[in-house]
Each structure stands twice: as C-alpha cells, then as structure tokens.
Design a protein that fits this description.
13 helices; alpha/beta; single chain; Oxidized Rhodanese, domain 1; five-stranded parallel beta sheet; about 375 residues
Length: about 375
C-alpha cells in the first residue's frame, strides 16, 4: 500500500512539473478582460490593450538593456538568443546562445521556451538594433524578462566592433545641426491595421509576427540626409539636450511620456516615413518596434547621434558616446550548436585587449529536436 501511494505521488509531481516547467510564461492567459473589437476598429482595441497592460512605450524599464559584463557573468542563468544571420552565428557566437531568425521568434518562444525558468532572456545582434527591436516585440507579448545586450556583439568581440560600431561613428553632419524648435503636426487618427482578430492580445500577437517577418526598420544617416523632407524626423531626447543641437527639421518628443494618445502619439504622420533617432539607435529601436506594431511606417536611425555628431555628444555633455572601452573582447565558440565543452578550457576568460577573441571550434553534429 505504501509503495502504491509513493508511486502515485511521483506520477503526480511529474505531471505538475511538466505542466509548469514547460510554460512559456505567455501573458495571454493573464490578459485583462476584453471586449471583442468592432469591425474596422482594431487599432483602438490594440492600443487600449497595450496602454492598460503595461504602457510599454513609456515604462521606466524600457529600453531593457544589459551589459556584456552582466551577460558573461550569468551565462548559466540566462537564455541567449542570437538574431544575427546564421553564417555570422556559425563563425562565432556566445557560448550557449541559440540562433533564431527574427521572423521565427514568436513561434520559437511559444514552442521552445519556458521563459520563467530563466532569470533573463537576452537578445544579441551586431550593434543592438535588431536585438532591441526584437526585445521590444517580446516585451509587448508579455515576456517581461527579455533584454537586449547593450552595443550588441560589438561589445563582446572586437572584430564585430571594427565592422559595425567603430566603422559607423562619425561627425559627418555635426556642422549642420540647428537649435530651432520645430513644431509637431496637428493630431490625426491612428493608422489602420487589419489582422482579422477580435481581441487586443490576439491583434498584438498577429501584428508582432507580421512586423518581425518583414524586419524592415533600419535607416542610415546618409540615406536620410539625401532627401530629409521625405521623412518626419523624431528627436527622442529630453528637451534640454534637443536645445543643444539636433538634425535640421527634427521634432522633439519626450522619452517615456509623449507617445500615448493623451499626449503626442497622434501627432505622428500616417502618410510619411518616420525616422526616430536617439543617442545610439538602441532606445529608438524599441520605439520603432512599438510604432510599427501600431501601423506607423517607423524606422530607427542606426547608431543614432553617434553616426553624425559623435564628438559633440562629449563636448556638449550629452553622453552616450561609443568608444573602445565598451569592447570587452570575450571568448566565442564556432559551429552550428549553441555550446561546447572542452577539457581545460575556460569559456569565461577574456582575451587580451585589442586582440581577436578566443574562438573555440566545435564539431558539426546533428542537433536533436526538443523543447517543451
């Protein structure tokens, strides 16, 4: 009898573990009570849902950025999702990182990730633009422990930094700044979106999946300056920094307060490309993600002010200037698989400064399918 009770207890605990351990911590089951949307009014339902279930765009936590030092110190506690191109992942990635195409991110999280079992889920890319864009998408879906690694793999690996951040910092348009206060447009309506869904969370999930599959949100400073009148340029800085000098024609929006309906969201145009720039392009990528989900044609100015007025970020005491001190040059592994274990190797030991990071090669083996 005792043996039977013991055996049944083990089965019960196993069932409980399976049902809780494989949860993806998706908020759909925890969403606010909603009414079905009326036909043609999807965006109203979507923004109401977003503003009532987190007000993500103005949340003090956004942007959720995390340093390379923090990631390296907690590799066993964090899930690292590398959203770079597969070939770059194979050539060198953080030990343990999984490679996921952004277009597959929503389904990957639902099918394979028990989000609550990790202290943090960290998105990584080249310069933290794509990772920040993706992190915001997952934040909106309710994965509150998702972060983007600050500066991207440029902060982990000097070779990436040389090709990305160090190559893009510039003062090319620093002499063309203005201090004029440009006015916002009159308020209009939200863009129209059509997903066929009737509840706020379902509309959100459909929009996130569509936008991530499209993945078109980056624009460079030279492209903007060719025809600046083609763009509605948003300066996403506090007003005191805006007054120190900004791109010609740029309109200032206060970070973490302006982009809600009751403030200035409806002053954004629905018939023109919107370019958001901040200091580095990282916070702007969070903002562009939010706006694209709402249906705006919004883009991040890659590398932010670092790409056109780098020295003035220091001389005007604005801050957020990228330099070589941000490059930690930690070890990486090569190959198709996330992790490698080699006898006597220390995967948490940094290489010498200004030398290529240690690369640990892996044998190519067939990866088993798995996950919850």
């Amino acid at each position: 009898m005792k043996k039977s009770i013991y055996f049944l207890s083990i089965i019960f605990l196993a069932v409980i573990f399976f049902n809780t351990g494989c949860s993806n911590d998706n908020p759909k089951s925890k969403k606010i009570i909603e009414k079905k949307v009326q036909t043609g009014n999807e965006n109203e339902a979507l923004i109401k849902f977003l503003e009532q279930s987190g007000n993500f765009i103005n949340n003090k936590r956004i942007p959720t950025l995390i340093s390379a030092e923090n990631v390296r110190a907690n590799l066993k506690k964090y899930l690292i999702i590398d959203v770079r191109r597969h070939g770059d992942y194979v050539n060198g990635h953080i030990n343990g990182a999984v490679n996921v195409d952004p277009g597959d991110l929503v389904s990957y999280m639902k099918k394979n990730v028990a989000a609550g079992t990790y202290d943090k889920i960290v998105m990584v890319c080249y310069a933290s633009h794509r990772a920040s864009f993706s992190a915001m998408m997952l934040q909106m879906l309710g994965y509150s422990n998702v972060y983007s690694m600050k500066w991207g793999m440029s902060s982990w690996d000097i070779n990436t930094a040389n090709k990305k951040w160090l190559k893009r910092i510039s003062d090319k348009y620093a002499s063309k700044l203005e201090t004029t206060e440009n006015q916002k447009l009159p308020k209009t309506q939200l863009p129209e979106i059509h997903t066929g869904k009737t509840l706020g969370y379902d509309i959100l999930e459909a929009r996130v999946d569509t936008v991530l599959k499209r993945l078109k949100f980056e624009i460079g400073i030279d492209k903007v300056m060719e025809n600046p009148d083609d763009y509605y340029i948003v300066n996403y800085w506090p007003e005191y920094n805006y007054k120190k000098g900004h791109l010609s024609g740029a309109v200032q929006y206060n970070p973490k307060s302006s982009l809600i309906k009751e403030a200035d969201l409806l002053t954004l145009p629905t018939d023109q490309k919107i370019v958001i720039y901040d200091y580095t392009g990282q916070h702007a990528s969070f903002v562009a993600a939010y706006l694209q989900v709402l249906g705006y044609d919004a883009y991040t100015l890659t590398y932010g002010a670092n790409s056109f007025m780098r020295s003035k970020l220091t001389s005007l005491k604005i801050g957020h200037a990228f330099d070589k001190s941000q490059i930690k040059n930690y070890p990486m592994v090569q190959g198709e698989l996330p992790s490698v274990k080699t006898a006597g190797s220390d995967n948490n030991t940094a290489a010498e400064d200004n030398t290529p990071a240690q690369i640990i090669k892996k044998k190519k083996v067939k990866e088993e399918e798995g996950g919850c």
